[in-house]
Each structure stands twice: as C-alpha cells, then as structure tokens.
Design brief:
This protein is α+β, with helices and mostly antiparallel strands. Strands 1, 2, 3, 4 and 5 form a 5-stranded antiparallel β-sheet that branches. The longest helix is centred in the middle third of the chain and has 22 residues.
C-alpha cells in the first residue's frame, strides 16, 4: 500500500501536499459524502484524519443518517465491446455469471 494512504475505522484517505498553501490535505475516499481535512504539520495529519472520520460518524448519528460505507462491492465499469463479448462467452462456457467471471479476473489481478 502506498505510504501516503491512511486507514481508520474502515475508511481510507490519501494525503496530498498543497505546495501553494504549504499544507497537507486529505479527504475520505470511496464515499458519496465529502469529508476533508488538513494540517500544516506532518505529525498532526493522521489525527486530523481520525477527527474527520469521528466527526463524520457523529454527524451522521445526530441527523439520523446511515454513514456511507466504503466500497460496498458494487461498481460499474466500461470496457471495449469485444472484451465484454469475450467475457460473456467465457461465462457461458464455464456455466458462470458474467459477474463471477469479472470477479475471478479481478481476484487474479489483485493477487498478481
């Protein structure tokens, strides 16, 4: 995993440097809500991330909203039609769903 990625309570954030303002910035990735944070000091950025996650969870609780969960396991992709056709053919040959073929391909890619 990249060293500029933080994880806390199942949420992730990638830390970036804003050279113009000389600040570190991040936002919670993989959710529909926008939650960001920043710090002037490297030593403080992880705590700012934790605070942002905790504040987000508390805010959701206070307004009766279910917090977004990262990476629910559902996403849409766009691929070339010929690749789509070939994967559908493989699915039929193997007696699997197209979804199963895509999941197997992704698992093989991630393991490599």
């Amino acid at each position: 995993m990249k060293k500029n990625i933080l994880e806390y309570k199942g949420y992730y954030a990638m830390i970036e440097v804003d050279f113009e303002t000389r600040r570190l910035r991040g936002k919670i990735e993989g959710i529909n809500d926008f939650v960001d944070f920043e710090s002037e000091r490297l030593e403080d950025i992880e705590q700012e991330f934790h605070n942002a996650v905790d504040d987000y969870l508390e805010f959701c609780k206070s307004v009766g909203k279910e917090p977004d969960k990262e990476y629910k396991g559902t996403f849409n992709i766009r691929i070339h039609p010929s690749l789509h056709k070939e994967m559908a053919r493989i699915a039929i040959e193997n007696g699997e769903s197209l979804n199963a073929v895509v999941e197997n391909a992704i698992q093989a890619y991630v393991k490599a």
